[in-house]
Amino acid sequence: xxxxxxxxxxxxxxxxxxxxxxxxxxxxxxxxxxxxxxxxxxxxxxxxxxxxxxxxxxxxxxxxxxxxxxxxxxxxxxxxxxxxxxxxxxxxxxxxxxxxxxxxxxxxxxxxxxxxxxxxxxxxxxxxxxxxxxxxxxxxxxxxxxxxxxxxxxxxxxxxxxxxxxxxxxxxxxxxxxxxxxxxxxxxxxxxxxxxxxxxxxxxxxxxxxxxxxxxxxxxxxxxxxxxxxxxxxxxxxxxxxxxxxxxxxxxxxxxxxxxxxxxxxxxxxxxxxxxxxxxxxxxxxxxxxxxxxxxxxxxxxxxxxxxxxxxxxxxxxxxxxxxxxxxxxxxxxxxxxxxxxxxxxxxxxxxxxxxxxxxxxxxxxxxxxxxxxxxxxxxxxxxxxxxxxxxxxxxxxxxxxxxxxxxxxxxxxxxxxxxxxxxxxxxxxxxxxxxxxxxxxxxxxxxxxxxxxxxxxxxxxxxxxxxxxxxxxxxxxxxxxxxxxxxxxxxxxxxx
Length: 497
Hints:
It contains 9 helices and 30 strands. The chain is an alpha+beta fold. The radius of gyration is 29 Å and the shape is elongated.
């Protein structure tokens, strides 16, 4: 069992809640009470925070209502006979003789907040996902049916629309970029279906990447966030929304002081597009990227290691006509520094489709600037998986050994054996030494080495020659451009020592 789980904070109705009271025999120091403005913030914004109630019809699993097998004379036999036969109809099944296979309705609760008095509500996508009906419950208990405007699964955000029966209170977004570590924040939501609940804490971290999606950049807080808080707002002490509470880390499902909120900078852009188009229209550069490791940086003469390494170019993407090539390292995009691939993914996605931007790359140790007109990222993205063969390859004479690899020039036989496309050129790997650096970097038989140190190769001898020269030059590693059978490229740095 893992020590901790990352989970959305939506609450399924019917969960039991354990209420624990605690007290201290000692007084609380004045400085531990937090700022005096929390009550003012709560009073100002509480009516803009709503509960989100959803219902969904699900198919019941067959056999789920089967009478349990009990030994004759069991003290529980009479009880189960009464429950299954008398209460559920003749034959022990549900009414209608369907044996419990009829569709059932399930309900769930989450949180949200009003951003426009016309009735626009923001929440999490996972709160309303797959729902047949969505209702917004105001702070005074008024229940209103909601219409779904649009969702963005990648940032887990959704926008709803309601017809207000009376004037509403709305909140506005603040600037999450201005948050500092240690700033006080206030979370309001519907934990464990208890209704409007106010908790307070500090900003524990910013730009947190927990690998839950391609655009992770969460605010981390120790303000208590529990199941049912999903989609609720995180406020600063001015009463502005600076985040949407989305995830918690917890081994038990309750708050342990590690919660995550989507920053308002991200939320504003997503909400604006959902309101305008009903969908997200993200920028697209048309490149496949990977991290610049210390070994790769050394091979490319980049100090310090930084940026996003271009491993492949989409033939129909905007990067190709702009002159960006595999092996380029993107270090700046539209005036913003790119420290790693996540930075590039986020800034490209946030840039308007059709905008012309400057992209600063490092190529062979020199900075160059390319002008790119962004395209639109299509969703869902279609990614072709590499074709692998499960059958062991027959023995073939090895042409050359280098870097812990058995290498051979590509021919018709080898293309057929490894199902390598005709468009792929280079030197095929036929075996990998299990104790080599190449094995650790997950090179495998059927991979094709296209370039060594950014120079094309066509034989094992070409590779050995390049490796020998790099050793003479005092290099510690060699950069390989490797293709799989489908032609998808990646860079791999191997030790030459």
